[in-house]
Amino acid sequence: MSRSLIDIEDSFYEPLHRMQEELTNNFWDWPFTSIRATGHKSYPPANLGHTDDKVIVYLFVPGFDLASIELNARHGLLTISGQRPIPKSEKGKYYANERFSGEFHRSISLPDYADPDQAEASYRDGILTVSFRRNDDALSPKKIEIK
User: Fold this and answer.
1) What are the residues whose beta carbons fall under 8 Å from the beta carbon of 81, sequence distance 6 or more?
2) Quick check: 17 and 35 in contact, CB under 8 A?
3) pLDDT tens digits for range 59-105
């Protein structure tokens, strides 16, 4: 039986999250953001998968202006960068703010058979889908003639 990456991540963070809740409940009257929400180097969250003929990357970027997002594929990496303006609070201060704001930059390793010259991207309902045609010829060894 296989475990999903979400289950593995949950099992990793669970003891830390419980400890944080205990400390918060015992010493402070207000909540902190969760430990899981602090990892901005892995923003935006992504799912990677494949079909028989494509490699597919799903990036979760709800509420972003698409003009502020840039995608590049090179040397086996998909790079996404962009920004969301930091909201200005009119009154009061936040006790917790889990909405991502500011600039981000993330690189995701692609399999060798993902062809960056045959990439397409689309956006719907907060999900940016990037697909690459699968080029299995890229996995075949190339004979190099010695001159």
Assistant:
1) 69, 70, 103, 104, 105, 106
2) yes
3) 999 888 899 999 999 888 999 999 887 777 667 777 777 777 788 88
* Number of alpha carbons in the 13 Å side-chain half-sphere of residue 105: 0
Q: Which among 36, 32, 13, 16 is positioned nearest to 24, based on CA atoms?
A: 32
- Answer whether the bond into residue 44 is a cis peptide, omega within 30°: yes
Q: Report the C-alpha gap between 129 and 146 in whole angstroms.
A: 43
DSSP class of residue 87 equals: P
Length of the chain: 147
Question: How far is residue 75's CA from residue 73's CA, in Å, rounded to a whole number?
Answer: 7
Q: Which domains does the chain have, with CATH numbers?
A: 1-38 (no CATH), 40-87+101-140 (2.60.40.790)
What is the identity of the amino acid at 89?
Answer: S
Alpha-helical runs (H) found in the chain? 5-27
Note the pTM of the prediction, 2 decimals.
0.64
The Cα 85–Cα 103 span in angstroms is 8
For tokens 């597919």, name the residue. 56
